[in-house]
Amino acid sequence: MKPPAFDYHAPGDLGEALRILAEVRGKVLAGGQSLIPMLNMRLVAPGHLVDINRLTSLATIDSTGTGVRVGALVRHSAAERSGAHPLLTRALKLVAHPVIRNRGTVVGSLVHADPAAELPAVLAVLGGSVRLARWDGGAETRRDVDAGEFFVGPMESAVQPDELAVSAYFPALGPRTGAAFEEVARRHGDYALAGVCAVVTLDEDGGIATARLACIGVGPTPVVMDVREPAAVREAAVERVRPDGDIHATAAYRRHLVGVLAERALRNAVREAEARGA
């Protein structure tokens, strides 16, 4: 199928892009790996398309001791190669296939807010945020939205029609902290039937000080939980999730799967934390 008709805009800088978004209601095109198929299937029909690929100022990865800020035009493959954040790198290897990762963007995946996607879980489990910009009263204004408030529902984020997501911030892993990402898909590169991302911090005696999980494919948004009883992590995960069944897996199977993956992710995150603290 062909997409419905739309007006195409190609701003040359961020200010121009924000002014266009303030004047029209349209969709932002960055990587296009989700948007273009949706246009072609006529699942969305925007009157305007704002192509931000000329905004080279948004193609940066900035690392500090406290975290990593990824610009809106950073491709999956570039973020993966940078190795700037170990958990982000690990999750990116699970995203689709190389040809998709060469065009798709990290921030675009977050804004798309697919409940089965890996990157929303990474942002959620780390307690990261997304920076949004808009044109207001003749000037640019920005706000940071925490992951807990950013993912509103399936395919729905907190980005308003006149806003542009300009970057995402992923907090660094602290001392004695390890992470893991485990998922099961029907084929490599497919969306996960279920997945679990874990971040664990050990105390000075080697015990678990904090443990946090984010589950995908089993709710309308990433299901985040703090694990207070590591020995009962499977039961805790199964109790928290509310998966739907479909042609690929029943709700019961997804619930069972997330329990198994929660145990595995927690165990592997502990191993990594032990190695980092050695």
Automatic annotation (TrEMBL):
Q: Does the keyword Flavoprotein apply?
A: yes
The family database entries (InterPro entries) matched by this protein are listed as: CO_DH_flav_C (IPR005107), CO_DH_flav_C_dom_sf (IPR036683), Diverse_Substr_Oxidored (IPR051312), FAD-bd_PCMH (IPR016166), FAD-bd_PCMH-like_sf (IPR036318), FAD-bd_PCMH_sub1 (IPR016167), FAD-bd_PCMH_sub2 (IPR016169), Mopterin_DH_FAD-bd (IPR002346)
Q: What is this protein called?
A: FAD binding domain-containing protein
Q: Which domain of life is it from?
A: Bacteria
Keyword set, alphabetical order: FAD, Flavoprotein, Oxidoreductase
**Which positions fall inside the FAD-binding PCMH-type domain?**
1-175
Q: Does the keyword Oxidoreductase apply?
A: yes
